[in-house]
Amino acid sequence: MRISMAMGPFSGMLIVTALLSGCAAPNANLSPMQRRALTTRLIQGDREDTFRAIMTVLQDQGYSIRNTDMDAGLISAYVARRSTGSLGITAEPRTGFEMSCIVGAVSDHTTEVRLNIRKSYEGEHSLFERMRDAGPEVYDAEVLENFFNQIVVEVKRRQAIGR
């Protein structure tokens, strides 16, 4: 869907309301610039502190760090979320979330962070293998803002203790 100036004020209000309500909008409903606005923030801190702060926040949230590359500014992580029925049996397929973060220096004291969260579905492929299918990207404004706020707090904590 393309957003144009020809849309009436009511249509524009619906889009703004949807973005601010914290809903997870499908890719087709958001332009690339809207997705970037939701997933990118400038953090007041140097690149290394911010990079390490993101890893700390991810681990605090139960993510397993899969890969890091400080030079490239890339962090990838995964967390499994299992849904359990009333009998305590794990429902299939299991779901999880893949997170990738790009961390880049804007200046000595400002870092740009871009988060990509994608839901994933994990099931049994065979007796010895697991299969993971990529699901939709998550564009929940509340979830993303909360994660960025946790990063800011951790960067400030690191600055306060001189790390």
C-alpha Rg (nearest Å): 18 Å
CATH superfamily: Kinase associated domain 1, KA1
Give average pLDDT, whole number.
77
Basic shape? globular
Which spans have pLDDT < 50 for at least 5 consecutive residues?
Answer: 1-26, 85-92
Topology order in helix (H) and strand (E) letters = HHEHEEEEEH
* CATH domain fold name: TATA-Binding Protein
Please give the domain count.
Answer: 1
Helix amount, in percent?
A: 25-40%
Largest beta-sheet details: 6 strands, antiparallel
Q: How would you describe this protein?
A:
- The chain starts with 8 loop residues before the first helix and ends with a helix.
- It has one domain: Kinase associated domain 1, KA1 (TATA-Binding Protein, 2-Layer Sandwich), CATH 3.30.310.
- With about 160 residues, the chain is of the alpha+beta class.
- It has 4 helices and 6 strands.
- Helix 3 crosses helix 4.
Quick summary of this structure?
With 163 residues, the protein is of the alpha+beta class.
Annotation keywords:
163 residues, alpha+beta, TATA-Binding Protein, six-stranded antiparallel sheet, 6 strands, disordered N terminus
List the helices and strands and how they pair.
Elements: H1 9-20, H2 32-39, E1 40-44, H3 47-60, E2 64-69, E3 74-81, E4 94-107, E5 110-124, E6 130-137, H4 141-160
Antiparallel strand pairs: 1-5, 2-3, 3-4, 4-5, 5-6
Helix pairs in contact: 3-4
